Amino acid sequence: MDVDVDPRPDKPLLQLRGISKHFTGVRALNRVDLDVRAGELHVLFGENGAGKSTLINVVSGTFPPDEGTFHFDGEEISHLTPQRARAIGISPVFQEFSLVPSLTVEENLFLGREITSSGVLRARQMRKRAQALIDELGFDLDPSRRVDDLSRAHQQMAEIAKALLGKVRLLILDEPTASLTERETGRLFELIARLKSQNVGLIYVSHRMREIRALADRVTVLRDGRHIRTLDAATSTDGELVELMTGRKIDLLFPTIAHKPDKVMVDVENLTLADGSVRDVNLYARTGEITGIAGLVGCGKSELIRAIYGIEPATSGVIRIDGAPYEFPAPRRSLKRGIAYFPANRIAEGLALSRPIRENASMTVLDLPAFARFGVLRQAAERARIADIMAQLQLRPPNIERAAGALSGGNRQKVMLGRALTRELTVFLFDEPSVGIDVGAKLEVYEFMKRLVEAGAAVIVVSSELPEVLALSNRLYVMHHGRIAAELTGAEKTEQNVLSSFFRDHLTAEVA
Amino acid sequence: MSDLELSVMAGDTDRAKPLLGRWLWNAVLPAALVALLLGFAAFDHGVLSPANLLNIAQQTSYLALFAMAQTVVILTRGFDLALGPTVSMVSVGTALAMAGATATGHDTSLVLFAGLGAGFGLGIACGLFNGVVIALLGVNPFVATLGSYNIAIGIATTLSSGRPVQGVPKLFSQIFYGGSIFGVPAAIAITVAIGIALHLVLSRTVFGRSLYIIGTNPRAAAVAGLPVKRILVATYVLCSALAALGAIMMTARTGSGEPNLGGALSLQAIAGAVVGGTSLAGGRGGVGTAVLGALFITILSNGMNLTRIDGYVQMVVLGAIVIVGVLLDRLRMERSQ
């Protein structure tokens, strides 16, 4: 790797001002500013969907921004393409690998910039340079191996090597340690230190506090596509960062819920999922109380309740519903047993947007004789029942024949909640119940849960919004790296305790 | 927070406009149909003669049946490329079964029963095969039915040795081709009856409702506990059973089992469905769109025949129409977003 010395160290290497990016219907970035200095490691911090990926894609030329200015090394850049970005020294390492699986490591390194003489590949020269680069990086990687024969960690190394071949001014790393071992991570950190000393600027995306502490000079927090704040890493606390990331402390009144815990309705024993997102989890939920599950994005909390409902495959463990083992969970069988699941992503997993509200609300009850007999729909009964339910939930406007896609986020959630009232249910699994809905609708959702619990249902709430789970739940589990890190009740149920469980090193969590 | 709400509310009022747009979209095809008819009539007055109009109606009734079959699977984001060869296979199988039953000296009603049994049996088997491969094994519908396309051609050609199968009893042709109900030719009567029945199935049954929900959002359908795989298998069976019915009617018309009967039908049926406004993205369409589309394709080819447009040029036109139909659907989707 050859590295140019930045001629103007006083000016930022990369300067973005007011960058916005829309995708169909979604504002992924909303006037985001970002400065990266030469020789600085700048962490992008935020939850999934906060806009980090979009932002690094803008910087590396994959997505053209809709508005805003882009200066690199003092020069205004427009119409950036990935090729041009590489040519001026912006080199991204994405989480989704850009390697061609059927080619060797060295072929991948030189893909699109092969060394040739009059059209003939100079294989030996490329091999030498590839080997030299890998040696310099200190990676244990054979350049002649095919990429699809490599482990994920080795593929990650190849990806990093690819980014560092040629002139590099700004290196972008998107969760680079996700698949690296401790030793390899150590190597990467050494490499990062060397690059910094050579005045390379780095953008580093990570959720891992420890890495941020070890590496970051500055941290920019993004939320909902907005730039929240840029802080000096040395003077900010973990709690401050997390608070900025997950959202303001909502000064909104949570309803007072009279929890009357009774019998154990859901009992999960040593549950492990096929994808490893949940490992050896024990948990129970009782009727008459809200059981909360908190944790950072990717800790396995959603997967856990999805497994109970039957949409994530488990490899071992037992789930008991009302004392009886529930084997091979599947949505239809779960509903018959009285378990309902309310997905976090209502567009992808909840609603058929172009179909009427009525059909969306009755989707889960088409097997009941009240809604269909011998396979024939009882449309009049359906219309009356759903209209009644949606009136109870104060759907606005109260027209159940409109397409669900025409509704606001809050009203879409009400359509989902309507499903809870269409059949006899005892267990309610809520996955991020207030995501994407306005404050008023949030309150209504909380009130709805209150009514369910006080009527004797077992409610499990999974949420990344800490104030929400803290206020709603009677007992709160904290998940970390697929395991239960803590179970908090009563006075222990504080933000401080939850945060400290988040950041307990996963090694100690594994020992515990 | 507040501008999120605002933008959503703006979205709410915007919905009113496309409604008018949708009426316009719906009026485009009937208008095009009339324009097409009048256009061809300007070249050849025979186009509007009662005999030709009846001919068009009869022609349409076969294609409408196939377009309905195709629509049912397209509603679920599926596809049946093998529809044409299924028709060939059913035609050959029906004729062979009837010829065999006649040769072994069974009486006529049993011969007819054997023919229908073989025809529907083959059709249902074909649909079951497609459905299982697509829904249970997870093969892309396009590839799966491209495979069964070749399988069905192979079976049809092998069974018939590539020649028309004779021995279709007169009575069979009299019932399914020559017959009429209240003066309406059999083909038209059957298609109207099936169309009404299918419409009721799509709009009034759990199965029909499920098709639309699965086509609109298969993931949400699964999370809501709909038996998605079972419904998909049933959908392909229904599609092939409708194709088998069409094949039986066409066999009655030709009076023999034809291994090439379904030649261009896969594409024509897709063209009919898509031109009529069935969305390849799933969840949009129905009996009405299938019938309108079939009418359009039939009038177009009828007109091109009468104005002596070369058969190969007609293939070019048909292929182009499928592509234009899909593009229009895309445009419509983008506008509605």
TrEMBL record, chain A:
Pfam families: ABC_tran (PF00005). It comes from the Bacteria. SUPFAM superfamilies: P-loop containing nucleoside triphosphate hydrolases (SSF52540). The keyword Transport applies. InterPro entries: AAA+_ATPase, ABC_carbohydrate_import_ATPase, ABC_transporter-like_ATP-bd, ABC_transporter-like_CS, P-loop_NTPase. Keywords: ATP-binding, Cell membrane, Membrane, Nucleotide-binding, Repeat, Sugar transport, Translocase, Transport. GO terms for molecular function: ATP binding. Residues 14-249, 263-506 form the ABC transporter domain. The keyword Metal-binding does not apply. Belongs to the ABC transporter superfamily. Involved in beta-(1-->2)glucan export. Transmembrane domains (TMD) form a pore in the inner membrane and the ATP-binding domain (NBD) is responsible for energy generation. This is Sugar ABC transporter ATP-binding protein. It comes from Bradyrhizobium iriomotense. The lineage of its organism: Bacteria, Pseudomonadati, Pseudomonadota, Alphaproteobacteria, Hyphomicrobiales.
TrEMBL record, chain B:
Pfam families: BPD_transp_2 (PF02653). It is a multi-pass membrane protein. The chain crosses the membrane at residues 23-43, 55-75, 81-103, 110-139, 175-202, 231-249, 261-280, 287-305, 311-328. InterPro entries: ABC_transp_permease (IPR001851). It is found in: Cell membrane. Keywords: Cell inner membrane, Cell membrane, Membrane, Transmembrane, Transmembrane helix, Transport. PANTHER family: ABC TRANSPORTER PERMEASE PROTEIN YPHD-RELATED, ABC TRANSPORTER PERMEASE PROTEIN YPHD-RELATED-RELATED. This is ABC transporter permease. It comes from Bradyrhizobium iriomotense.
